Amino acid sequence: PERRHGFNYWYSYGTYDVHKHPHYWDTDGNRHDVDEWSPRHEVSKAIEYIENKGGVRDPEKPFLMMIGMNPPHSPYASTDDCDLEGYERYKDKSLTELLVRDNADTTMAKAAAVRYYFANVSGIDREFGRLLAALDRAGLTENTIVVFASDHGETMTSHSTDDPKNSIWRESLNIPFLVRYPGRVPHRVDDLLLSTPDIMPTLLGLAGLGERIPAGVEGRDYSAVLRQDAVQPERPRAALYMRNLDGGRDADGLVRGFFAQARGVKTATHTMELRIGRDGTLERVLMFDDAADPYQLHNLAPEEHPALFAALCRELAVLLRDNDDVWFREGVLSDVVPYDTNN
């Protein structure tokens, strides 16, 4: 119970990537082995909670419910891994019909996974709709904030990489972040550069708890942006990207610490990553004009675009300093990243 982060109702997935035979641990510590596609089972349990089956919540009190679905996480190699109803949409489509991005490589072995991956995406769309319908039936729609998000993207053969997520490519870095709050959040698409640390304070602000956000929270409350209030906060100019690898191993072979391999920045128009070797020297620079080159096909050389490179390094320096990042504390690449910048 002390590891449940304050939740009083617990039905936890067992970190077990077998999508059709998942297992869960309940509030009382009992294990449940299930023979059902995990998102469908989890939404069914969430609906039971919304309907208060078994009196598991106080209907007079508000609630926070978090559902963390595993698919479309790997594996996605066969119909044993995917939603079959979703698979019917894609099973007869060619790879060129499905992998339509200009940077996708249909010759890779991984390309065939796209049918199963998209099948799971479509299946989750259906299950999410089932969840929203349950809120409607319970009369909770108008007074419930709903957020749909992901932890990372999936390159799915873009840039000819098998790695789904550990990169600054926009297919990996960008995630969906949809917010519904009827009557309070107007429907639109917004280009706010929201970062992970901003999610918690922003949701607290939407819930009317802005004054109770702890001072030590690193992110900012952008609920005024979502509501389109008359008074708007200053928007972030950039978002910080980080990639850490395992550190060295001790005498027992255990990993100790981490190696801060790369740091980068995403602005409204550009993306940049600086990667170092284990010796601390600059190993690679990636720099893209996302507005003119949305599929990031043309890496801009710093020596050919010195003003742009310098500007992005200044933005990176500000973010590293504001976050007290290890690169800032240790002065990594201080000859390139101006940590003493004031803007």
Shape label: globular
Structural class, from secondary structure content? alpha+beta
> Major sheet: order of its strands?
6-7-8-9
Provide the CATH top-level class of the largest domain. Alpha Beta
- Tell me roughly what share of residues is in helical segments: 25-40%
Task: Characterise this structure.
The chain contains 9 helices and 9 strands. It has about 350 residues and is α+β, with helices and mostly antiparallel strands. Strands 6-7-8-9 form a 4-stranded antiparallel sheet, covered by helices on one side. Strands 1-2-3 form a 3-stranded antiparallel sheet, with no helix packed on it. A hairpin with a 4-residue loop joins strand 2 (about 25) and strand 3 (about 30-35). It starts with 10 loop residues before the first strand and ends in a 13-residue tail after the last helix. The model has no long low-confidence stretch (mean pLDDT about 95).
Summary, kept brief:
This protein is of the alpha+beta class.
